[in-house]
Amino acid sequence: MRATFMYGAGDVRIEQIPDPALQEPTDALVRVVRSCVCGSDLHPYHTMPASSEPSPMGHEFVGVVEDVGSQVATLRRGDFVIAPFAWSDGTCEFCRQGLQTSCLHGGFWARDGIGGGQAEAVRVPLADGTLVKAPLAEDAEDSALLPGLLTLSDVYGTGYHAAKRAHVGRGDTVVVIGDGAVGLLAVLSAHQLGAEQIILMGRHKARTDLGREFGATDVVAERGQEGITKVRELTGGHGAAKVLEAVGHMPAYEQAIGVVRPGGVISRVGVPQYDEAPVGFASLFGPNITLTGGPAPVRAYIEDLMPGVLEGTVQPGRVFDVTMDLDEIPGAYRAMDRREALKILIRP
To answer: Which of 101, 157, 200, 307 has its CA 20 to 30 A from that of 316?
Structure first.
């Protein structure tokens, strides 16, 4: 089968590898119907050292179950499934708390001998705890719902996690930093949870226009101190009680500190590309700021968010603005890196 590998910064290739096979009785084999390139895939695309031992790529996919191990109880051949970006057993103490990204027996795609989702098929460990069935008809592989369902594997659940960890609720003022797919779906999530004012900090008009359609009431294109000043002007001078940081770079974190009001919450879901960040008296301690967030346990949210996608009352799949075939993956990475596309949908 074909699968995507990264050999180093800027070096993405499609290669032929053996088809995956069941290895454990709790495994399932899933034929990938749709996958995508994530903004977080661009981090290694910028920084990965060159290597003769490449990394498989992709952590978001939906597909059809092709085979199951003897101990898989909830899935059968032909089921259409959503794969969260972390696999988990669903039974350990952390899974029971809705924190599947900390599963005692789980892990992440494209690591430790598990393949990536930018491929034609994937072996799924702990299939009962990991995969979520979607009730699609026999023509599922051509369904217009596929982009929206695919967002449930990561970006929609991650944006929702940002809002939930910040305890966004009715009447809140929320600032969302970042106009990538996660930031835009954080806007959508904050709107769903009842926020009254949602300020999106981003400077790419096509994206911020979509953010407005998702519920943003204001857009601030300025960055740094100029952007902080503009947000404070929009929030009565004190800043916002809820700040959702969806970028992961230090300037975005510093901007979050600049726009949060005393007693507020910063919820980070952008994968941090730094090891140290201000948390001392002047930044967080003195004004009683709460810092939260982390890798989203999207498995905990899929069943709550999926009905709206199936009914068409929410359309998170609109973050996909380009569709490419699997063989075009190297070009997909280049297009997203150049900001020529927001998020690229991949067909096998």
So the answer is: 101
Asked whether residue 136 falls in the same domain as residue 265, the answer is no
E strands, the chain, where? 2-8, 11-16, 28-36, 55-56, 61-68, 80-83, 86-87, 107-108, 121-124, 132-133, 173-177, 197-201, 218-220, 240-245, 260-268, 290-293, 322-325, 344-347
Pick left, alpha or beta for residue 98 (phi over 0 → left; psi -120 to 50 → alpha; otherwise beta): left
Same domain, 258 and 178: yes
Tokens at 19, concatenated: 């088809």
For residue 293, is it left (φ>0), alpha (ψ between -120 and 50) or beta? Answer: left
> Which is nearest to 130 in space by CA: 59, 36, 182?
59
The CB-side HSE value for 165 (13 A sphere, CA atoms) comes to 27
Burial of 204 (0-12, 13-18, 19+ CB in 10 A): middle
Triad 88, 303, 85: Cα angle to 5°: 40
Query: How many C-beta atoms surround the C-beta of residue 46 within 10 A?
Result: 10
In terms of domains, do 206 and 282 share one? yes
Residues near 162 by Cβ (< 8 Å), separated by ≥ 6?
A: 182, 186, 189, 244, 245, 246, 267, 268, 269, 293, 296
Terminal alpha carbon distance of the chain: 10
Q: Are residues 239 and 275 in the same domain?
A: yes
Q: Tell whether 41 and 168 lie within a shared domain.
A: no
Domain of 94?
2-154+297-347
Burial of 281 (0-12, 13-18, 19+ CB in 10 A): exposed
Span 303-330, pLDDT tens digits? 999 999 999 999 999 999 999 999 999 9
The count of domains in the chain is 2
Which structure tokens are listed for 290? 């709460």
Residues 267 and 182 in one domain: yes
